[in-house]
Every structure is written in structure tokens, then in C-alpha cells.
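Workshop exercise sheet. Pairs work together: one partner reads the sequence aloud, the other fills in the structure field after running the prediction. Swap roles for the next sheet.
Pair: D.N. / O.F.
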Amino acid sequence: MRKFTLLLATVFFAVAAFAQRPVSEIQLAPRDKNFKWIKAPKPLPVSDDAYVSDKSPSQSISLREAETIIGSTKYDLQTNRAMSERLVRNADGTLSAAWTTLCTGQSSGTYRGSGYNYYNGTSWLTADCNKIEPNSRTGFTNIGVTGSGKEFVLGHSSTVGGMLFTARDTKGSGDWTEYPGAIALNGDDTWAKTAVGGTDGNTIHAIWNASGVGTNVYCDQVGAVVYSRSTDGGATWPVVHSCVDLIGADYYLGFSADDYCITAQGNNVAILVADWTTDLILLKSTDNGDTWTKTIIWQFPIPFYDETTMVIDTDADGTADIIPVPSGDGRVVFDNSGMMHVVFSETFITDDVEADGVGYYPDADGGLWYWNESMGSNAPVLIAAAEDLNGDGELNYPAGPGDGTYYGSGTYGGGLTLKPSIGFDEANRIYVSYATYDELADTTAYGCGHRHTYVIASYDGGESWSLPYDVVPSIEEGGDGENQEAVFGFMARTVDDYVHLIYQRDPAPGTSLSNLTTEAGWNSAESDIVYVKVQLGELTGITDVKPDLFTVSQNTPNPFSVQTQFNIALTKASNVTLRITNILGQEVYSENINYSAGNHVYNFTKGGLSSGIYNFTVMAEGQQVTKKITVD
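Structure field:
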């Protein structure tokens, strides 16, 4: 295995070669057609002491009370970016699950559809790879259950030429019926996301890309995200292709595949949307989708960025910048009190040639970021990243096959950490699942790293977070986690005594559609769809969430050109490490200071730092706070 130190101060940054991202109607929206992969130097991730512990997920006591294979699929790309609604925990304790499926030997052009299973409170139905749609091809499916008990799936369909609504009156039983005319048809409607709300639970909200694989223009945009609504459980759709002005042509050029999500609670509705070259936008409605307000959580530095005519050079120095951006996989969910919580991953992009498209760094790790409404205009905070699980100060990657070239840990439209989902229990405690690189699960058979699915929890409203728990059982626990990749995890929003989660698992990294396959047969077999029931209270309880030792203010001024300052308040005397890393996680400055208890003002001088965005991290006794700072 290759090893890459986390503490290198500098690295020679060379872009080796650009390989075109494959273009197909199942993977990319029109604006991605010139998308390019960038083979960057190995990442030095945001992986400091906060992500190194003597109680790594693989060493933790097993808390899986149940793990069941509930289905399988050869079509192993479940989303381009943000997760669709895939698992619903119903009020009676039953579970409804759905995913995109295809059986071995079948053509995806004809037989791709919605895989499905149901837990009746005692057991799951027999697992298989079959789709539930009787007549039509569909995919990138969502599942929901209305207040009247109707169970439905919604996905785009080339067979009907738009969105296909399929439903049955009773969850868990009865025949599925397709309603191809329920929603006004447009052959370029693709990649839907749904949510169930309304005061009676019978409102279905849906958003999707209205341009899809074609060039249709809605809302004066190619790639417009449009809103649709039914208030009678899908029987009629009086609102279809509605343009939400706050994300319309007055603000953005358009969006790409799956980089948005929607959630609802009663008459509250929220939409989160972000392309790599737009803001991270949060829309909220308190009247069941009639009117909207907008919050920008993360601002893209170049308004109306057009990758076909522009380059990313924010400081106008003639050199293309590498900038951090949300990966487009964000998730927003209302908690029990009606407050919105947002989680998203970060990646890094650049664009140095006009008309050549935006490129990104799939092997870099920007980590997982969190924000909620109570934080107001404060920046999101970093809550998870790829871990140094063996504690050697390095992330260990397998060498690539043959020539020793490294092949990334799958390609899922972002960095090493991505695709979060959120749940809440009765006490309003927060649970977040995500996938990230697992250095203990590297397999030389493929010459690629593997990802696993993890869960973390916060018991104090997002102020502090537990150690991550790997839901994939290791060989020691009776599983085969060291030789498996486990991705596309999705957690049911309602957590009872357990977190309920499904994910996709197979030995091969990446997907059959990602063109990572360097050996015949990669990803040709069906992947398992796995349900896991995990009791997290024991693992992620108070013993694992440390009380705040210190707080750190945002620096002022920010951005700064010469000097900036932070306020650091400690509850007891401590040896504090101050560390600054660039966007690739490379350490550019560090300092150790013995601070007494109380408030301290720390002044930092720019020195030789070049203009750009950096992470400023304060660490003491295993705890950390990270703030994003900008040098002019």
C-alpha cells in the first residue's frame, strides 16, 4: 500500500491528465457534458486529531441488532449526488424501502425500475431484484407513504416520457398501478426528489430537473429545478413545473442532476439546492409550498458562473484557483420542533480553460458540514471526515493495478466523504449517516479504496458530535467489511430506539457506470441492498460526546490581508494546538501554546500565505473547532 503523510507542509501540485467523464442520460445533466476528471496528487484530508481515536468504529462494540439483505440490483448507481427518499419508518413501526434495481441478464434500457421491500413489524418480504412497475422503465426512484396509508414511488421514465407515479392504496400489500398521465409529461423531466406533508399527510411535494438530458428551457434556464404538488395523495397534480423565482434565471443559470432535495413537515416545506458553481440555497415555505423565502448558506464567489465561457480566477491574478464548494449532495430535514437542519459534503473544483468545463478532485476530502436555523448567518461547521483509523498519522491507499497508478475510492460526484442523511428521535437528538473512505477496508484485488457507511449523533443540538460508528460488520464481527464497499446509505427520518438505515454493498469499488473498471467483471454482479438496525445510544452516548473545553470565535476581519484575530475561551488550562491547512488539507502553519483558563485573543499574521481559503483549527485534549478563513 502507498502511504501519504497528513503533515506535509508543501506538495508539488501537478495535474497529470484529463479524462472525460462518461456522458449518458442516466448520469449527467446537460451542463456536465464537458465535465472532466482531474487526477490530482493524493489528498492530505481534513483529518487531524479529532478524527484519530483509540476507539475507531471497527474497534467499537457491535450494536447491530439486525442486518438483513432486503434486495439486490445490478444497476448500482442510486443517485448522482443527493440521496432520494429511500426508507420510510411508518407510525405503526413498519418500514417501506425502495431503490433503483435491475436483474442480471436484463437490459437497463427496458427493465430498470423500482426495487422494493416492506417490513411488516416482524419480518421483511422475500428479497429479490425485480421491479414493481408492471409496464414501464423507470429509475432514481423515491418512496413515500401518505396519511391515508397510500404507498407510492416516483421516478423518471423514458417509457412514459417524464415522471412516472406508481402507487397502491395500502402500504405493504396489493397490486401496484402505474399512473403515467397523473403528472403532465415532459420527456426531459428527470431526477425527482419527493416529500410527504400537509396537515393531513396527503400532500406530495416533488422537485426535479426540467431539462434533464435534453435542451428544453423552463424558468428561462437549461437545468431548471421545478416544483410540483399534489394535495390528494397523487390523484391530481394542480401544481406542475412551477418555477420558484428565488432560484430562477434572475439568480442562476441552472442546475445539474440530483443536486437538490426536498423535505416537509405539516405545512412546512424546505428545498436545498446547490450546483458546484452556484450558492448553497435553502428555500423555506410555511404555507405548504405556496410561497418561499431564501437563505444562502454558502455563497459561490462568481455570480452567474458559466463554465463554457469563464474560468475560476477569483483574485484575477491570471492563475486558475482551486476553491471549496458544496458537493451538491446536501440533505435538509425538519426536527420535531420544526427547525431545519442541513448536512452536506465539500469538494474542490477548478476551471482553467474556457469552454473546457469544471473539473474536480475526487480524491480530496473536504469533509461533512452541518448547519441549522439557530446558527443564522454563522458559517456551517465541520463534523466528520475520513479517519486515520490505524492512528499512524497517514491515510493509507492501495496502489493501482499494473502500473501502480492510484484509482480513487469510487466515483460518486464528490470527495472522499459524501451523501449524508438525517434522522431524529423523540428527544430531538440528531443522527447523521454518510459514506467515507475506510483505510482498513482497502483491497489489493481492485487496487482501489473502499467506502463504508457511518453514523454519528449529536445530543446537544449540533454543538458536539459523537465518534462515528461503522455500520458494516467486520470479519471479527462475523461479516466481511474489510472486503466490501458500502455506499448510498439512507436513514429513515424517524429514529425510535434504533437508527433504521439501508445501503448498497458489494466487493467492488465504484459503480458499473463509473468507468473505474480496469479489470473485466468489476461491478458486473448484483449488489446487495442491506437494511441495518442499530442501537446507537450505547455507543454515541454522553461518554463519547465530550463537553466543550473551549470555544473559538470566527476571525475578524475575514477576509484579511495582513492580520486577523480569534477569541479563544477555555474552561481549564490546556496545551492548545493551532493549525492552518489549505483546501487540500495540507498544513501550512502550526503552533502550540499553553493557555490558562479564560479568554484569550490570538492574533495571526498572514506572513507568506498566498491568497485563498484556509481552515483554521484549534485542538486540545482530543477536541477541535475548525473555522474557514479567507486571505486576500
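Discussion prompt: The chain has one helix and 40 strands. What would you look at next?
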